[in-house]
Automatic annotation (TrEMBL):
Lineage of the organism: Bacteria, Pseudomonadati, Bacteroidota, Flavobacteriia, Flavobacteriales
Ranges where the Phosphoadenosine phosphosulphate reductase domain occurs: 34-185
Family stated for the protein in its record: Belongs to the PAPS reductase family. CysH subfamily.
InterPro entries: PAPS_reduct_dom, Rossmann-like_a/b/a_fold
Gene3D superfamilies reported for this sequence: HUPs (3.40.50.620)
Name assigned to this protein: Phosphoadenosine phosphosulfate reductase family protein
Organism per entry: Mariniflexile jejuense
This protein's pathway: Sulfur metabolism; hydrogen sulfide biosynthesis; sulfite from sulfate
Amino acid sequence: MITQENINELNILLKDAKPSEIIQKAFELNKEAVVTTNFRPYEAAILHAVVSVETAIPVVWCDTGYNTPQTYRHAEKVIKDLNLNVFLYVPKQTSAHRDVVMGIPSVDAPEHALFTEQVKLEPFRRAMEEHKPKVWFTNLRQGQTAFRDSIGIFSLSKDGVLKVSPFYYWSDADLDKYLEENNLPNEFKYFDPTKALENRECGLHA
C-alpha cells in the first residue's frame, strides 16, 4: 500500500524526469495499470508515451456519446496508429434517448448532477471496477484547474489508486513539440457536455 509519504518522495524525486522515466517507475511499483482517455486535445501524447513502455496496457475510453465528429475521427486514427488496446465504456442510456427526456442541462440546473452521473461518472466507475487497476495513467496537467495545481505527478485517487500524470509540468508548447517529434495528431474540436467553462473540474479527478 503506497502512502502519502511515498507519493511526496516520488514527486520530489521525479519532478524533472522525462515522461518515459515516470511511466517506467510507475510500472515498477505495480504493473496492474490502465490509461484513461477521452481523446480531447493532447491525449495522443499520454497514449503514445504509455504504450511506448507497455504496448498492451488497457486503454479505457469513456465516451459520453456527445463527442464531435472530429473527435470520433481523431480517436479512430489514434487507436489505429498506436494499435491501442481499447476498452470502450458508454452510458447505459443513449444520447438520443436522453435528449428527449433531459437534454443537456446547464451546470446550474438541478438535472446537471444526474446528467454528469449518467454520461461520465457511472461509466468510469464501471470501467475501474472491471479493471481494478492499482496504477492509473492520466494526462492531468498543472494550470488546468485549482485542484489539479495541487496534486503533483503522483497522487492518490479517492479509491486509493496511484494516479500518474507524466506530463504534469508540461505546457501546451511542450506538448505541441512532443506531438510533432512523434508524428502524432491533435484535435481541438472537442466537446464535454458536463462543463460550461473549460476550467471546470470534470468529477473524475476531484
